[in-house]
Structure formats: structure tokens, C-alpha cells
């Protein structure tokens, strides 16, 4: 049923079409192209046989994430961060969020003194790049650990739960799920939620870009987020062949 | 009534002692020392008679924030960011949060082509530096605008609402208000909430550092935050002489 | 006919399969995915309505290029240049080469005070990324200028010639065309040649990685390069619909 | 007796009111707020259980200093050095001066393979911040070493002498002691002198900002400095409870 | 016989006057002032008793080069790279070229775990600074290794061949040897060639700054380069007293 | 008369041999090679037809200085500052000193909206590079202004006085003039003095590297400095042909 209110015609609680393409590039241990509508992010998972200094000799692993956007992934070209010589505050905020979210998904003590590097690079942006990145990184990480299992380095994929992420927000007065760029650039509130497949919160980051919002709206946004995340986790598990 | 559970003996819903000292230094248009227990932050508000390039000629103002910690404001000395040549991701995340929160408090179109710079520098850290910073910056900004009113540059302080901030979290299984350092470094969940004096949300940033948390916990944390913020707004207004 | 000498079995003068996919992403004025075998590079062309300071008021345009590799486009993960805070010497060398090559293809005086930004980002590397980048950037730039023609901003695409690029080298004693990664990492000589569709040289960059090479070898390498470039230019024109 | 010549009415050879507040913050081994009139600097001394690479295994300690100003410690807001990504030449000059001065005060061979970090952060500037910083850092360092004595790590505070610092200058033709901001920004000559409690020179840095000055003036300035430093050393020792 | 065509009156195949002054400064193991006409470059060779991390324990040496220009070595003053905080792309390109060229001249396995640092600093620029640098660095490196031979650290200078470099180009339609600044800034093609004393190619870097050039021109340029390099190698050997 | 005490055999009050070679390079408006014994510094003066932003439209000129050392100007090779991406604190301290000293020599209001850039680059270091730099820069600046006089841009060289610089120090208990490297690296006190030809102080920077020094020593050092500077100014004027 089409919706007059949203530019895309989606219902308030409808996700965009979400696709997860595994083995997207050939070198990485895990490599996923994730698409949330027109938003496209390449997520690779690389295993390195060492840990950062602060963990040396402690017998546990580490997981870290980096995020980037191709200069013309956006409507108007952005400066290339490598050329400017620094990552923006926004970039750092997002890659810290991805790292925390994925560390919540895996048992760092169960994969030895190794580091899992997650690289999330936005090829095309249309809103929701950070939530797409977390969602795709979960699958890429799972694939990378599966490779360690296959080569008998570890006994099982050290996943504690699945994590997925989605944005919710208030667009023209209505709480909606999975904002695209047109909505994102014109909304009053934007909230990113990261949840486990058990429906527990890993991260909540909400910002009132226009009007501050009341508790009832907050409650409705959290409901929408949970519904969306359950749908996305199903897609993740399907993509990995864990369910049908 | 003392509480066995919290290191400080505070009740689960008790704030630390909060103090706001105005005119703490002499040069800034607004200058506040804010204390949340042993956490001490100097917040200054400086008015500059120009706006960033992207706002030139648009007849409106801008508000921006920076955050820093003295190297030995913490238990062990941190490297000085100016000497390292860059601000950490954490620093940038916090100063972006402060900026967004305070932009929500004031009407940027009502103070002409001026920039309000908020500088929040932590002298002593004991948990909750970012929430103390937002709380103190509100008062410093109010003072700076009041000076513009007194010198008849603008007609009234362009405040849309008061904003204040507090942290809540789950410490040893119990939702608590206003975490100090001992709690913060050993909690499962840490959430920072920024709200208006009307009880509307400006920012919510929650992270499950240990276990992911369920919706009931989320609800309890938001209740605690609202109660704490109402108490803090009262202190802000008292400090400014707006109420008794 | 398969070749015992080359890991891929290609004949000494055989290119890899080359593909040019236009309109690969949706925001850029020109956007091409170029593939030389397993090497995949996204080339976007962005038009900006201004020129660098040194050209202001001179009534002519400018063209500039940037190059990057996704951290896990390679066999082992490379550090992200944006995170390290600087582009490597190799990166700068390559993007300067792309810029000079493409400036040779277009008449900078014929498109007004505009800058064409070419961004070449390697998604997957298997040797020859810089020659693929130049080849794809030519097509992306052509598309971007065509858009200006369609919107009647300029009268015609200001191309002076087509340019394309290919590598040649000495692999296990034999001069070969279009080195892939296995050859590139074990060759004695590596030369990148950029030529116009008239067979004239735009750039020649040859390096004896192992043994220095004699004049007869040089002559053979230049022959191979010219043959390969003629084949590639045909593909470029076909992709653009300029020939069948 | 008031002086018509100086903005503050001080006699030519009168110091401003100088205060030293120990234990100003709670984490540092030594922590002093030093005030020279309206100039306020927080000096902390932090002990780290290692030395820089060039001293490893040599059985001696090291002492180093850093200096900073809060952005709005001054009349008009200065850019934050951490945000700009580098320390100014002035900042580096001052922190090198503080480091050399304090290394002259202590016996580096007498406290083992430890580093004493001195951080001098200006909260409010009104002239003479570097001399205040040296003066306060001496007391903070003494306190930090005293803590090592108390915990029986070393046998005695390894002080060779006390050092203190003061500025002298030529203001409107008259040599004066301890320039405040109004004098400093309008003087012909500005000289910073660091001396031991025995009246021996550790550092002399004089600059003719306006007219070059003659030898007789130099002699008078050095006399004033010595008198001032003797007064300051007395205050330092009193603050530490070493004399009454 | 003077040439109407070239600003200097040189014949098309005539080098400028080339001079190599050994022991130009006193500290370096090898130190050469090289002059190609008015182009003057100081080349020093410094031996360090360690290798970069990636070679540790492999029993072989390393050779690396850096290049710089004094700010006023050029017609108009350039910004100082140390002050700007980064080396330009051009500088990096040149120092990488010098490094590769000289690594081709020496047997890195024959001088133990040592690094030879070549520093090429342009005192006065008049075209051809990179070819002068390579030419001078060869002699400085030879001197540095000779010192190791004299002190009986190694048995013989580990030279595989001599390398020298020269530029060739097309100036006003004529292929010419050794472009000076006037020619360089107004030529259609500029090519730098590095060759061994056996006439084998080490590096070729040609750029069509104006018109792309055909194969016949390429052949003529390579002939000129070979002739010039044979003359230069003779001068290098004479300077070192290896021939008369 | 030779001196047993000093490594060079110089008398306590003897300068090294000082040479000033004008027109050392051809592009700069002023270009001087200054030698203090084995210390050799190239000083160039470049005139730019604009002033920094803070002086725009004020009708006066500006003078600024930069300092650098070639990596192997010293006994062991130093890292290249351009490659490290920043100038050391020592470099900045020295170039600020050179700038202040030369600004004291010239009337900035008398040469229009122009900037004089002084670049002092150390080719070979043997102690006293900063004093040699100031001494040489004075002559280079004079030459640059003379060129403006010759081309009738200004009426006269805007020199207020001559400035020159020398180091003095306490070497093995004896105050000596003009320390060379052997003395400098083993002295108790090192003081750099910049004076006008009238014997007035422009800068005094003294440091007790070992023992703090008393007032009598200070007086003797200032006497030595004045004597040395008078000798150097005579050499400067002779080099410029102002006296015989």
C-alpha cells in the first residue's frame, strides 16, 4: 500500500529493499555488498594474525572498524579524506559506532590473538549508510570467521548474537522506518538503533535535528526500530544460509 | 538514605552535588565552572562578530563547541592532543554532541551574523564530563547573550528552551542516575540524555558496554534521566537568577 | 592459443578481458566501472562550477584526478590512507599521472571556468590499476562532458583525442602485454604507456625492477603497448556508442 | 606607595600579588594553581614509571614540560591548538623553556628510571604566564617527589635548588618588575629571567620589542629580576611548609 | 658550433658544462656538489648501521633517497615543505625515482645490514635537477662505500654498474639533449632517462606536455639520451679517479 | 697567541674566521653564504609584492624568516623535517629569533606593502648556526633592499641599524667568544646575543646547560659578546662595500 507522506511512497513501517551479496571481492576473508535501496556499501572483513599493543599476550582477539565514502558517492562531490589528511568527526563517529556494535556481536576471547578489521566503504549514498554498514559488516565478519572454522583454526564462529541496525525518524510529523536521503535531509528527528536478534539494545543514537521530541514519539520510534531489525536479521541469516 | 549498591552510597535516583559558578574567568562573555561531584569543567562562551563561510550573508548566527581535557584531569596522564597533532575520535564525538545540543537551545536566526564559541575544558574528571559540559555551556551561553542584550545589540536572549544533560546506566544490574567514574568504568550500559526543560529529547546516546539491554531497562533509564534533568534545569535557572 | 609462459596462459600480446560499465553509480556526471580481468576500478567524473585560484578569470577549465585503493582491494590489507593522514608517494605519483594523461585528452579552454574531478577508486586489485584507471576515466570524462552538451552548456565534447593506457613488461625473459598481479610482482621490467588513438605517446614510465634492459627490448615493449592501446580505444568508443 | 607610571599603580620594583594553591586537583601527584595577579595557571606534575627511549637502561630519570592556554584564557579567543593540529612556535618555545628550567632544579640521576611530566595550562592570562608556570611547576614537582619520598621509593626530594622566574621590562622608559598584560603589550623590552635561590642564572631571554636597549638598562633589569625572584622563592618555600 | 634554435646556443646534442665536486661538506661519508650548467645540487651519502623493519635479520642492506629544494633555489620563492608540513607530490615522485635508480646501481646484499641514505638538495635550479641529483648521488654513494672499504668493513664497493641520468625533450619541434629551465618551461615533451654505463635502461619517464609525440621522435630522444649518458658516466669515473 | 684551553687553540675572546660571500645563488634578490669557521649557512632574501592578511591595507611592509638544516649538515644524519611533516621546536625557536632580530634592523613602514622572506639554510654545521644566520641574513636583506633602491621602487635602504649576532659561553670554567661545536656540546652556559652596531641589545638568550652562573660571569659574557659583534658588523659593512 503506497504512502502519500513519504517521497518513496513506502508505508511508515516499510524497509527499503535490502540485499546482501557475499563474496563481492576476492581477496578479503569476508566481503559483502550491502544495499539498502540505493545505498550501497562494500563491507570487507580481514583477519590479521596479531592484536594491538594493549592486548598483547592476553590470549584474546580484537575487532576494529573503519568507514569511508568515495568522494562522489554523494550528490555533490566531497573532498577525499586521504587528500585532506584527516578523517572528519562524522567519519570517526561512525566507525567507532560500527566497531562497538560488532564487538557486541562476537566473543573476543574465542578467536585467539587475532584482529578482525572491518572496512565499510560507501560506493553510493542515499541515506542510512551507517546502518547498512553495520548490517553488512555482521555478515562479512561471520564469513571471515567461518573461513577460520573451515581451516580448523577455531572450533566455531564466535558469534554471541546477530546484530543489525536501522534508522528511524520523524518525517513531516510521522514516525517512519529506514529513512532515505530525501527524508533524512528534511526530518525533525533521526535515530540509529543497533539491536541483537533477541531484540536487546546495543546502541541507540537519537538526535532532534529540528523540534525536540516527546516520550511517546520515542516509544513509537523504538517499536519501529525493533520491527525493522527483526526483518533485517532474517535477511542476514538467509544470506548466510543459516535459515531458509 | 545510603545505598549499599553504589560506591558513593547514593540512592539509585540521586544526582551528585551539582554546582554552577558564573564569571569564573574574566575575559569570556560567559564563563562557568560546572561541578558534578568531583567532575569539574570550565565552560566559556565567546562571541565573534562573524559566521562561517557557509552562512555568510544569510543574516543568521552560528553556534559551535569544542571540548578538551587537561592531560592530568584523569587518573593517569593522557597525551596532550595539541602535542599529538590531532583530536581523538572521542573528543570530536563529544564536541559535536555539545554543539548539536546547544544549537537546539537557541534560535540561531535571532542573534545576527555572529558565532557563539563554546569551549568546555575538563579540569578534573570523575565521570560525566560531557553531560556536565552541556549543562555548564547552557549557562555560559545564556550569560554571553545577556551581555549582548545589556549592550543593546539584541533585544532578548534568543533561548528557545533550556537544555541540560545527564548520564544514566546499568550498574551491577540496577539502573542508576548520574554515573561517577567508578560506576562508569564498570557498568553494563551507559546512556547520555540531553533534554529540554519541557522534558523533550534533544539527544539520546546509549551504549551497551557489556550485556545488551532490554526494552524495560530502556524505559527505566529514560525515566531516571528525565527526573535528573528536571532537577538540573532548576539549578541552572537558579544560578542565572531566573528563579529563586 | 594458450601460453605456457604466462600464469594466465595468455599469449604474450594478449590483453585480459576488458569491460567498461557506464552509469555505475547514480550521482556522478560520469561513472564507469572498468575491469581489466580481476582488476576493478570505479571512475567517476564530477563537474564543479569553479576553477582553482591560479586559473580564476582566465576563461578556461581545469581537470584533476585523485586515486585511492580500498584497504582490502589487495591480497593483504593495506592501511587506510585517510586514517594514516596522508597519501603515499605511490598514490600521489599515480594520481598525477592520471591527471596529466587526461589533460592531454581534452581541450581545457573549451569548457569554461569549470573543473572536472576524476576519482579513480580501486575496488579489487590484480595488477594494472593505474592503466585501468586512465582507461576508465577517459570514458567517465566523456560522459560528463556529454551531459554538459545535452544541457546545452557547451557545444561539443571538448575531446582532442582518446587516450588509453596499458602496461607492458619483461616477464621471465619475454616481453608481454598487460601484466596481471602474478606477473607484475615477479617481472624484470614494468612499463606503463599512455597513448592517443593516433598512436602518439602521452606518457611513458618504465622501470627496470630487476635487470636493466636493452634498446631492442624497449622497442619490442613499445610495439606491444601500441597494439594493446589500439584495441582498448576501440572498446572505449564502442562503450560510448561512437562506433559499433 | 602608588606609581603614576604603571597602569596598576605598582612601584617599579613591586611584584603583583602571588599565590600558590597546592593540591588544586585530585589525580596528579603534584597539582598547583599559581596566580600572578590575574594570571592563573594550573601546574600538574605526573610521575610515569618509564623514561624516553634515549635514556633506557641508563638508570636515570627525565623531566619534561608541556604548556597550553585555554582558548578563552585571553582577551580575544584564540584557536584551540588541538583542533588546528599543531602547537604554535610560541607554545613550543615556552614549554622548552619550562623544561630546561626545571631540569636545572632537580638531580635527574637521583629518581630512577622515571619521567616527571609537568603540564602548565593557563586558565586566565594577564601577562607573565611562562614565569608563573615555571614558578608553579617548581612547587608541583616538589610535591610529586615528596610523594615518592613518603612512599619510600626514593630517599629524598632530588632538588638541587629552587628555581623561580619573573619578567622584567622597560615600560614607558622605566625598568619595571613583573609586567602585566597592559605593560607587556606596550613595552619596549621584555625579559624573562629564571634563577636559583642562590641568585644564579638558569635562563635569560630578553627581547627589544621596540628600541634596542643599552647596557645600563640591562644591568638594572637584571637587578630587578634578582630581587623579584628572591621574593618568589620565599613564597614557594612557605607554600611548601619548608619555612615559615 | 652555436645553435640558433636553443636559448643557450648549444647544439641539439650538447650537454651543459657538468662538474662534480667531491667532499663538498665535511660530515657525510660521501658529499658531492653536482652542477649541470647553473643547476647545482648537493648530494650526500650517509651510512646508518641498521635497516628498515621489513629487512631486519635478512642480512642485506638498503638504500633510500630524499630530495628537496631550498625555497629560493627557483625563480620565484617556493613555500618551504617543512613549514607546510608535507612534501609535494613532485618531491615524492623525484625522490622515489632517485631511490629506484640508485638501488639498481648497487648490490644491496653485499653491504650488510646497513642503510645508505642519499640526500639531494637543490641549491640553485635551472632545469634538470632530478637528473643532476641521480648523477651526483652515484658519485656520493661510491665515495661512501669506498670509506667502508678503506675501514675494511666490506671488501669492495658493491657497484653493479654506474648509473647516470639526463633529460631529453622536444623544444620548438627539435629533439634536444639536457634541457635547461628556459627550454623545460616551454617544451612539448620532456623525458628523463636513467641508464647504466652498459647503455641499458633503468628508468624512462616521458611526458608530452604539449603535443603527443610519435614513435620516430621517441626513437630520436632515446638515441640522444644514450649519447649523453655515456658522456656523463665518463665524467663520473674521472671524478672518482677510476679513469683518466 | 694559542690557547691551551679551547679545542681550536683560539684565545678566549677570538672569533673564528668569518666570511660573507654575496650573490651566492642567482635567483634571490639577496643571497649570501656566511661562514663562521666550518659553519656554513646560505641566507637568501626574497621580496614578495604582498603582505600577510593582518597587515593588508596598512601601507607597511613585513619581514619574516625561516631556518632549516640539510639532513647531513650535522655529524650524524638528522631526519628531514619536510619528510617528518613538521618543524622541530628548535627550528621554530631559531626562525622566530632570526625574524625578530631582523625586524629590529629595518623600518617596516618604509618599504611599502611588501614582504621580505629570509631563508637561512645550514649546509654544514659546526656550532653557532643561528648567529651565523642572523649575521648573513642582515647582508642578504641589505642587498635585496638595495635592488629595490636601484630599480627606484624605494628611495633608500630602510635600515635603522646593522644587527649581528654571536654566541658566548662558559667552556671549562672560562667565558669564551663564538663557541664551535666541540665547545658547544660540552659547555656549562651558552648565550646568544644579537646587538646593533651601536652596541644596544636586540636579543639575549642565555641558558645554563650545566651549572647555573653568577652575575659576574653574566657581565663578562656580555662584554665578550659586544666586542665580537663590533668586529662582525665591521665585516658586514666591508662585505657590502660601505666601508673599506
Automatic annotation (TrEMBL), chains A, B, C, D, E, F:
Phosphate binds at residues 90, 128-130. GO terms for biological process: rRNA 3'-end processing; rRNA catabolic process; tRNA processing. Its EC number is 2.7.7.56. The keyword Nucleotidyltransferase applies. It catalyses: tRNA(n+1) + phosphate = tRNA(n) + a ribonucleoside 5'-diphosphate. Keywords: Nucleotidyltransferase, RNA-binding, rRNA processing, Transferase, tRNA processing, tRNA-binding. The keyword Transferase applies. NCBIfam families: RNasePH. Phosphorolytic 3'-5' exoribonuclease that plays an important role in tRNA 3'-end maturation. Removes nucleotide residues following the 3'-CCA terminus of tRNAs; can also add nucleotides to the ends of RNA molecules by using nucleoside diphosphates as substrates, but this may not be physiologically important. Probably plays a role in initiation of 16S rRNA degradation (leading to ribosome degradation) during starvation. This is Ribonuclease PH.
